[in-house]
Amino acid sequence: NHCLIGSAFLLGIDSIILGYSRFSHMNQLKNDPAYQSIKGFSLPDEKVCRNFLKDSDETTVSQLRELNRKVLELKSQNEEVKEVILDFDDTVCHIFGHQEGSGVGYNPKYHGRPSYKVKVGMLSITNELLDVTLESGIHHSNYNFLEFLKDCIANLPSGWIVKRIRADRGMFDEKTFIYLEDNSIEYVVKAKKYNSLKLEIEKLLEKYPDEKWHSINSTYSFAEMNYALPTWERSRRFIIIRKAVSKKQKDLNKLKLFSHDYEYQAIVTNVEYLTPAEVFKDYNKRCNIENNIDHLKDGYYFSENSLANKIANEAFLILKMIAYNIQNWFQS
User: Fold this and answer.
1) How far apart are CA 247 and CA 251, in angstroms?
2) Widest distance between CA atoms in the chain
3) So what's the pLDDT on residue 1?
């Protein structure tokens, strides 16, 4: 039975890598003479793989995550000890049916429709996936994020040492910052535009007229300040980025902060040795994870959750994560 499940597991991994997105398509690969010759052993029907996922429980999901960690550890044995940067984001995955554990939340494409939300933790540059979660679409990006962050760090092989994390404003939370500061981990995170922060930026604008802003290029300039939100325990470094907007944008967009001539964003960081321009440049590197998520959804079917059971869909998602990591290394 274990051999049968193992063979079905391998068929599932290979099918995902080779673009067979549906269970029914897996048999096309199974019956391919060249594939049979390469494998050198008899492969089960796709139903075995489907039933394995349907019968999954929390223990199965944990074992699959542990398998991904071991695969990462195996890969790291061929490398030198290195510092790594982790990027985080999440994405809405549309569903078409009545999948367990879905919910109606932010859904940019199908308003009012239930969906899942997938969190992703990924290494910068080399793009290995450390972990993923499958959650209800009703969850905010910051839902259990600190626990997810800790799990991703725990999944790092012994030769990979986390240097910095980068995240979008959905993960902007002092609990996360305190954990990172207390563990000597750098962070570069986009700030939420809380009213208190907006007012503080307004004071900065009064203090720093146009000639006081430092140019990054013809579009962007910056200023910086130390500030603690009213509910925070600690003050932190904020880099305020100002972007000049075109006349067309001025006419169309009435939601600019304080001035129709500029858009503003803020980045919070504990990295003191980088200049504001370098912090801005470093944060923008995080945008690569958004391209990778699109690749995961299009190339590895992360957005396809056709099984009715939530745990089964999560197990299949982790299987896709393992398939992606394996294929990613062959492309390196």
Assistant:
1) 6
2) 74
3) 57
CA–CA separation, 133 vs 155, rounded Å? 14
Closest Cα to residue 162, out of 151, 178, 174, 175?
Answer: 151
Is residue 242 within 8 Å of 263, Cβ to Cβ?
yes
CA 302, CA 116: separation in Å to the nearest integer?
Answer: 11
- The model's pLDDT over 55-84, given as tens digits with 9 standing for 90+, comes to 889 999 999 999 999 999 998 988 889 999
